[in-house]
Write a structure and sequence with these properties.
By secondary structure, the chain is α+β, with helices and mostly antiparallel strands. The protein contains 13 helices and 17 strands. The strands form four sheets. Strands 8, 9, 10, 11, 12 and 13 form a six-stranded antiparallel beta sheet that branches.
Length: about 425
């Protein structure tokens, strides 16, 4: 006589690990039901039992050595077919209904008739998924010997939301963004790659990873979320700011008395520039416009105080922030030959030096106020850097660059001296 039991079916670890996470969750939440066990299951190592009560429809449940295994519920067919189209198809990789059937059986443990595959494909199209296919007409004779037409649908593929070239562009943007920590960089690349199919993922494996020390501050995404919220709510923020010292590590910026400096800021806009993420804002104690590196911000908090309007700041000309115009006025990119440059610099510029030239710079001859810097760098970039920080930079080598700097400085000095405004 058959016996009735209330149990929870589970999948083998092997099958569960092969499934996408959303399918694992669906399975884990769906396997509560009652079943009838035939007497043959008492001693047999493997035996099928029929399902009596369950809101999901399973083909069979099997008991193997005390463990229970379930084939996929029929109501998941449409989800599984969509998953197959996402993972295995694009314009250059198409599947017939028979191939979809085979994948369902091989990878999803589902035995499905071709009519069911066709029906679910049409349902997905009706739901709005961009699924393309080809049609061919097959002529056959019916039982009465009359010719009939049968339309065969095949070559199914899903148009993905992003093309492979678009995904590659996004992935390259992530890889070459110096402000994203390596761990989050890798996670973002993996998430972007998952938006396409297995063929694209294979190509992603050939994309070079950037070094693990792209940034030393791991709070970037947390900072972005809080700053977005503050800008949206028009609230001030406070934070500490990080800067590099000669040990090439980040330290909180301090006042002259040695106390960690607290910044109270009016945030207006987040922007990306030359691989770095900036906050366009106003330092509350002043009335001008400031830019702060978001990956240098730490201990960020939103304050319960409204921001200062941007059009009240010096340099705004009484207008709201025009981001395009603002970014056009902050260009700093060059091309040309690389040189081995040696220069003396004020130690207050150490953060700017590492920002510009990276951590491959070599520091030497350090005094209380200055330090000698050696770096392999683009010559035009070195010249512009020296011009931008003229009072605190002295170029030593290459000699030709030093002589050019002297010539240009004398020329500039001559203009200032000949056009003195009284």
């Amino acid at each position: 006589m058959a016996e009735s039991y209330s149990v929870k079916a589970i999948l083998s670890a092997h099958k569960m690990n092969q499934m996408p996470l959303d399918r694992q969750i669906a399975y884990q939440g769906a396997f509560n039901f009652r079943f009838t066990r035939h007497p043959c299951t008492k001693n047999a190592p493997s035996c099928s039992v029929l399902l009596l009560q369950n809101e999901f429809q399973y083909d069979m449940i099997e008991i193997r050595g005390g463990m229970m295994f379930a084939k996929s519920p029929k109501k998941l067919i449409i989800m599984n077919i969509l998953d197959i189209l996402k993972r295995y198809t694009d314009e250059n990789h198409r599947l017939s209904q028979k191939e979809i059937q085979d994948i369902l059986e091989r990878e999803y443990d589902m035995t499905v008739e071709r009519k069911a595959v066709n029906r679910n494909l049409m349902n997905l199209i009706e739901f709005g998924y961009n699924i393309n296919y080809s049609e061919s007409v097959r002529i056959f004779k019916d039982n009465d010997g009359k010719e009939q037409e049968n339309v065969i649908l095949s070559d199914f593929y899903l148009e993905h939301e992003f093309t492979d070239s678009e995904l590659r562009l996004l992935i390259d943007s992530v890889l070459f963004s110096n402000h994203i920590p390596y761990k989050q960089d890798k996670e973002l690349v993996d998430k972007l790659a998952s938006l396409s199919n297995i063929y694209f993922k294979k190509r992603v494996n050939h994309i070079a990873r950037m070094p693990e020390d792209k940034t030393d501050n791991k709070q970037l995404f947390h900072n972005v979320e809080l700053l977005d919220e503050a800008i949206d709510k028009r609230r001030k923020v406070c934070f500490h700011y990080l800067e590099y010292h000669t040990d090439k590590k980040l330290h909180k910026r301090r006042n002259k008395n040695g106390k960690v400096r607290e910044y109270i800021i009016n945030p207006y806009q987040l922007v990306a520039k030359e691989g770095k993420y900036y906050l366009i804002c106003n330092y509350d104690k002043y009335d001008d416009i400031s830019n702060y590196r978001i990956d240098r911000i730490t201990d960020l908090e939103i304050l319960d105080e409204n921001i200062k309007p941007f059009d009240q700041l010096k340099g705004s000309d009484g207008r709201k922030l025009d981001l395009e115009e603002y970014m056009d006025k902050h260009v700093y990119m060059f091309s040309g030959e690389n040189v081995r440059a040696v220069f003396r610099a004020d130690k207050s510029l150490i953060s700017d030096i590492i920002d510009m030239f990276g951590k491959e710079v070599r520091f030497s001859e350090e005094t209380d106020d200055e330090i000698t810097v050696t770096v392999n760098v683009n010559e035009l970039a070195m010249e512009q850097f020296a011009k931008a920080f003229t009072p605190w930079i002295e170029v030593i080598k290459p000699v030709a660059l030093r002589e050019r700097m002297i010539k240009n400085l004398n020329k500039s000095l001559g203009k200032y001296m000949s056009n003195i405004v009284l």
